[in-house]
Amino acid sequence: MIRNDADFQVPEAGLCGMRPTDSHEYSQLNELKIDIDFLRENQHFEDLGVIAMTEQMPIIGGFLPSVEAGAVSDVATTLAAFGMFGTSWHLDGPIHVRWGITTARETCQIAGFCGAAMNRNTDTLLGNQYYTLAGPCTEMTLLETAVQATTDCASGRAIVSGVASAKGVALDKTTGMEARVMGETCMATCKLNLPKANQVINNILAKYEPNYKEAAQAGSRFAGKMFAEGCYDPVKVLPTDAYLSTYATAMKTLEGCGLPLKGIY
Question: What is the average pLDDT score of the chain?
Answer without folding.
Answer: 93
